[in-house]
Structure formats: structure tokens, C-alpha cells
Specification:
Order of helices and strands: HHHHHHHEE
Oligomer: single chain
Strand order of the largest sheet: 1-2
Shape: elongated
Number of strands: 2
């Protein structure tokens, strides 16, 4: 087993650019910079998501008399979807009648199993729509944070592949004899012929 290659791959996966910097390749700084920028972006999006979540809680508490102490998302989803608690209950019973049209006991059981406790009542539609906008922005920040995590994973993968290619190219370049190797360059890749004794 080539332990040097294992070390280079491990460095690249742990911190992108680490393998390249170990091989004294300056493009390692590009991968490292992308990693740092991704972490900053992730922290920003998660902080914004958290701030918007608490902003939505206080907004609903002020304009819909919602329960500020609640932290279960099912409650806040209902506050977002329905103008008031009565509207929510009506819809829940409507669903129960749809699923169990000829069975009042099953309908009641369905409502009991899916019922969310708590009261709210939006003072007007403008405030309700504003709350929906805040919640949509909150989810958008959460999605951006997830995308940033994906970018971090992709950066690690590309860094590891690049480090493997670079390591093999450098190893071949330093091998005695006649042959060729492919080397990454600014405009893509270059094919080099070597002759070494």
C-alpha cells in the first residue's frame, strides 16, 4: 500500500487543499479558500435561519396571539397555513370526513390523533401574509445552508481527486526511464514526455 498516497487523500478529505499543499502545489490554497468561504457561508445562513425563526415567533405572538413558548414546528406550520384555530379545526374535520365518510367514530379518532393544541387568530390578512413571507425566508436560509454543505462535500471530493492525479503525475515525473505524464495546468491539462536516468 502506498501510505504517502493514503496520507495525501486523508489530508484532502479532512481539509480540502491539504493534499496539494503537502505536495507543495499552490492550488491547494484555492481549495482551502473555498472551504473557509463555505464554512462562513454556512454559519451565516444558519444564523439567519435561526433569527428568522424567532422573528416569526414574536411576530405571530404580537399579531395572532400565538403561543411564544411553543417550539414544535407542527404548531407553527398550522399558524402559517390557517388564519385561526377554528379554521384549522374545520379543515381537520373535513379531512376526517374525507378519509372515513361513513364512520363518525373513526373521524373522531383521526381528529384526536392529529390535533394540535393551542390558539391563534390573525388580526388581518396582511399580517398573516407577512408571517408567511418570514417563514418562507427562514426556509430559504435553511436550504442555502444545506446547499453549502453539499458544496463542502464536493470541494473535498474534487480536492482528493486532484491530489491523487497530482501525486501520480509527480511520482511518474520523478521515475527513471522514458515515459509520459499528464499534468494539470492553467488552461486544462498538458501531456509531457520525460527522459530521465
Amino acid at each position: 500500500m502506498d501510505w504517502a498516497l493514503v496520507k495525501i487523500i486523508s489530508l484532502s478529505l479532512l481539509f480540502p487543499g491539504g493534499g496539494q499543499l503537502y505536495l507543495k502545489q499552490n492550488r491547494g490554497y484555492v481549495f482551502a479558500s473555498a472551504e473557509i468561504a463555505s464554512w462562513i457561508g454556512y454559519a451565516f445562513f444558519k444564523l439567519e435561519e435561526k433569527n428568522l425563526k424567532y422573528k416569526s415567533y414574536t411576530f405571530a405572538s404580537k399579531y395572532a396571539d400565538a403561543d411564544l413558548t411553543r417550539r414544535d414546528e407542527a404548531y407553527w406550520d398550522a399558524v402559517e397555513r390557517y388564519r385561526n384555530y377554528e379554521e384549522y379545526l374545520e379543515d381537520l374535520w373535513r379531512k376526517a370526513r374525507y378519509f372515513y365518510p361513513d364512520d363518525p367514530l373513526k373521524q373522531e379518532e383521526y381528529v384526536k390523533q392529529n390535533l394540535i393544541s393551542g390558539e391563534w387568530n390573525w388580526i388581518n390578512d396582511d399580517k398573516w401574509f407577512k408571517f408567511q413571507d418570514i417563514r418562507a425566508d427562514m426556509r430559504r436560509m435553511g436550504n442555502f445552508a444545506l446547499i453549502t454543505l453539499g458544496v463542502m462535500g464536493l470541494n473535498r471530493l474534487i480536492s482528493a481527486i486532484d491530489a491523487i492525479v497530482t501525486y501520480k503525475a509527480l511520482k511518474k515525473k520523478n521515475t527513471k526511464g522514458v515515459g509520459f505524464y499528464i499534468e494539470p495546468c492553467e488552461k486544462g491539462f498538458s501531456v509531457c514526455l520525460y527522459y530521465k536516468f
